[in-house]
């Protein structure tokens, strides 16, 4: 496969100018895949005209390969002839494609390190990981190399990078956005999402992709701080988030505290891991078994776990998922939004070893599972810092309330953020 000799990215000029792509800068953040320059057309006008779009390399773009973070997946699947539905929507709204971004291997990690393609730089905290698996898209947006980063989220892959890189991000209601032309990982959990630095652009992308809500929130939804979930966060990080929430109450009114009283969050995490693992093995196991590629640290162990999940474990996990989804649906009703930490702490240090990263991953899953297992929408907004690094606050709402949740996130950010967008 031809390459460009170094990591680089490309701008698609408007069709009104020239139908070709031009390299505009070196990829100093190591966020983009080293693919050759191929023209990608976009509309000359639209609500996203002039906005640079970086696409996670598990969405197809015609004329480009798709790697899903894996050299063997890249080699086995070849150059694509069609473009993923969501990418087409963004291009038709005027966004300009600037490249495909690195993601964690097979999208099976939340840290942002890829043993084959490297780790993108977290521009918001350069000594720390960017988060994964949508690492490159978050890195490109945080570092100003793109305005919109298209990513995906199965178990936290937009929420963690959004939190770590100080960005707006979303995991929509499961099934809300089309995944046509996206490589599957665990289909009953897979979603698409996006990153922006700017709250207004975040909302504009929502207008393009989401359309009207099926279950809109009311004009004054109830905001509830999930007290027991803040116990899963580092105390200093939790205090910073609560200070932001306190600032917001001065502008948007009372925010109530609530204990969710989930008896065993560990059981929820185990159920998610087993269901995700079974689906990941169904989607990707045949490729792994056929080619037996060298897998990066942690990824090999996760596939071994996935391969060993039994039918009985899947049946039990599905019961846990269904019962918890029903319980959280009752808690949220039609007009309640939960506030919780997007991550247990600021991003881990890039120098942390496997033991430290595995510990962080275990803590992070206890927060991510509330959106992942239920399929309810979750928006991350940048409102706090610790030691100069960002940490995000999540708004989790009822299924189908995505567009209203994005608008509420913008309003909440304006009220709570240290620096207003």
Overall SS class: alpha/beta
Overall spatial form: globular
Low-confidence stretches: 1-24
CATH class: Alpha Beta
What series of H and E elements makes up the topology?
Answer: EEEHHEHEHEEHEHHEHHHEHEEH
Biggest sheet architecture: 10 strands, mixed
CATH topology: Amidase signature (AS) enzymes
The CATH architecture can be named as: Alpha-Beta Complex
Side by side, the strands of the main sheet go 4-3-5-7-6-11-12-10-8-9
- Spatial extent as radius of gyration: 20 Å
Keywords:
single chain; 421 residues; alpha/beta; Amidase signature (AS) enzymes; 10-stranded mixed beta sheet; two-stranded antiparallel sheet; 12 helices; 12 strands; 37% helix; disordered N terminus
Description:
The protein is an alpha/beta fold. The protein has a single domain, classed as Amidase signature (AS) enzymes (Alpha-Beta Complex), CATH 3.90.1300. Helices cover 37% and strands 16% of the residues. The strands form two sheets. A ten-stranded mixed β-sheet has the order 4-3-5-7-6-11-12-10-8-9, with helices on both faces. A hairpin with a 2-residue loop joins strand 11 and strand 12.
């Amino acid at each position: 496969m031809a390459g460009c000799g170094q990591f680089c990215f490309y701008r698609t000029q408007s069709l009104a100018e020239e139908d070709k792509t031009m390299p505009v800068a070196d990829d100093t953040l190591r966020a983009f895949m080293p693919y050759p320059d191929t023209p990608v057309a976009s509309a000359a006008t639209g609500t996203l005209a002039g906005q640079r779009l970086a696409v996670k390399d598990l969405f197809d773009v015609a004329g480009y390969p798709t790697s899903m973070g894996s050299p063997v997946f890249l080699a086995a699947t070849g150059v694509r002839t069609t473009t993923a539905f969501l990418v087409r929507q963004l291009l038709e709204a005027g966004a300009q494609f600037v490249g495909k971004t690195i993601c964690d291997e097979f999208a099976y990690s939340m840290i942002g390190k890829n043993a084959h393609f490297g780790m993108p730089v977290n521009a918001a905290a350069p000594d720390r990981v960017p988060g994964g698996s949508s690492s490159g898209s978050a890195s490109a947006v945080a570092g100003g190399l793109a305005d919109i980063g298209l990513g995906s989220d199965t178990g936290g892959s937009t929420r963690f990078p959004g939190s770590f890189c100080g960005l707006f991000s979303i995991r929509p209601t499961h099934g809300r956005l089309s995944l046509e032309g996206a490589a599957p990982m665990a289909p009953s959990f897979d979603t698409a999402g996006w990153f922006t630095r700017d709250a207004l652009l975040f909302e504009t992308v929502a207008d393009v992709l989401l359309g009207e809500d099926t279950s809109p929130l009311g004009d004054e939804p109830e905001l509830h701080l999930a007290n027991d979930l803040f116990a899963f966060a580092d105390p200093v990080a939790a205090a910073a988030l609560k200070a932001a929430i306190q600032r917001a109450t001065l502008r948007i009114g009372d925010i109530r505290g609530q204990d969710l009283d989930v008896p065993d969050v560990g059981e929820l995490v185990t159920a998610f891991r087993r269901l995700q693992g079974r689906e990941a093995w169904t989607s990707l196991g045949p490729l792994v078994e056929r080619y037996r590629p060298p897998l990066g640290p942690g990824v090999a162990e996760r596939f071994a776990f996935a391969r060993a999940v039994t039918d009985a474990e899947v049946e039990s996990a599905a019961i846990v998922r269904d019962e918890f989804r029903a319980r959280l649906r009752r808690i949220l009703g039609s007009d309640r939004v939960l506030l919780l930490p997007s991550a247990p702490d600021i991003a881990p240090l890039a120098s942390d070893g496997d033991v430290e990263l595995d510990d962080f991953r275990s803590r992070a899953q206890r927060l991510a599972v509330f959106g992942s297992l239920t399929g309810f929408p979750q928006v991350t907004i940048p409102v706090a810092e610790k030691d100069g690094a960002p940490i995000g606050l999540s708004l989790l709402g009822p299924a189908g309330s995505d567009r209203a949740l994005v608008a509420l996130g913008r309003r909440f950010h304006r009220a709570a953020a240290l620096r207003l967008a």
